[in-house]
Amino acid sequence: MPTLVLNGVQKSFGKNPVLQGIDLTVTSGQMVCLIGASGSGKSTLLRCMNLLEPIDDGSITLDGIDISEPGYDPQPVRQRIGMVFQSFNLFPHMTALDNALLAPRRVHGTSRAELEPKVVELFSRFGLADRMHHYPDQLSGGQQQRVAIVRALAMKPQIMLFDEITSALDPELVGEVLDVLRQLRSEGMTMVLATHEMGFARELADTVCFLDRGRILESGSPEQVFGAPEQERTRAFLSRVL
Ligand code: ADP
Ligand code: MG
């Protein structure tokens, strides 16, 4: 059962300190939501968890193993920690199914015949069975984002990171993508989301973290953070977005 622990994580871009000592524990089966203004460091934090960005100080451990050591091979970590972005980035010249088969085939060196039934099963589980053979431009934005989620799940990750995955969608398509997250959560997937969907975070998060200028200024249950925020800056942020 995966547990991800961040300890004093610091990250700067040039002279810009973007993460200034992040302590965060993500335990198995939990859903953690990162909220905060644009530029507060949510995306950078997720990218550090996935080793897409090296950290400057502190540590990130996965099941007790320090994965943030310089020189640690990021590839196996990225198989265990999947990530989905705001822009779906599907390959336009491949069907949804082929998009989802690409990475696991390359990484696991498994044959298509062996892999395909498992990936088809994922498409079915997330209501996309009738869309598998479509190309991205034949799918709505919501369907494309759901395919992007299935593609990440095809790697059999233990933890999933989601970076504002509904922000680029027309409002009427947001619900179907949130439904996928809801389903994943009920299946016990460990998840960390950067999100502007406050209603969703309030409904489903185990822990909500309010990021402010690279720090977790406040964290707790949704009832605590949304219902009785302790920090003035949290209150100001929530009054702007709620
Ligand atoms: P959020 O996702 O909360 O909007 P980000 O993590 O994207 O915040 O950005 C936090 C800060 O880091 C911003 O000031 C942003 O300009 C800066 N930043 C993010 N990525 C880079 C990068 N690759 N190079 C330089 N600065 C960056
Ligand atoms: Mg961001």
From TrEMBL:
SMART domains per record: AAA (SM00382)
Reply yes or no: does the keyword Nucleotide-binding apply: yes
Report the main location listed first in the record.
Answer: membrane
ABC transporter domain location is 4-238
Q: How does it sit in the membrane?
A: Peripheral membrane protein
The record's listing under InterPro entries reads: AAA+_ATPase, ABC_ATPase_HisP-typ, ABC_transporter-like_ATP-bd, ABC_transporter-like_CS, MetN_ABC_transporter-like, P-loop_NTPase
* Pfam families reported for this sequence: ABC_tran
Name the protein family: Belongs to the ABC transporter superfamily.
Q: Which UniProt keywords apply?
A: Amino-acid transport, ATP-binding, Cell membrane, Membrane, Nucleotide-binding, Transport
- Which superkingdom does the taxonomy of this entry point to? Bacteria
Which cellular compartments is it found in?
Cell membrane
GO MF terms here are: ABC-type amino acid transporter activity; ATP binding; ATP hydrolysis activity
A Gene Ontology cellular component where this protein is annotated is: plasma membrane
**This protein is called what?**
Glutamine ABC transporter ATP-binding protein
